[in-house]
Specification:
13% helix, Immunoglobulin-like
Length: 148
Amino acid sequence: MKTRKPYQILIVVALLVVSVLAGCSSGPTKVDVSLTTYAVTFSTDSIKAGDVVFHVTNDATDQIHEFVIFKTDLPGDQLPLNAEGAVDEEGAGITFMGEVEDVEIGTSQDFTLTLEPGKYVGLCNVGENVGDVVNHYTHGMYIEFTVK
């Protein structure tokens, strides 16, 4: 009677390799985003290309915010503006990627984007009509980041 031990061992090893490789999947990159009065901060400096989950929290105590992401090679402080002083979301040199709007004080919202390698700017594009129109972006409420 012949044994099939070498064949069985090969199958067991192949199954183990497949299960180990399946467990190596790291899933989407997660980035905690904190919005405060005229500032944006990230929990990480390293963002990998692919699916990215942005967990956006309004940590301000006085204002509603939003978080908008653009792919661009422009410097963060030189994005195209519309007549009201907000970033023109269809302006030259930028590509709108996605956003969460109306993030109330003390709340969080998640959104997922699939990002390619490149340069990006995340910002709050909310404006307030108090005297002169004040836009959060023009007060420095943006963050530049690179996806690798």
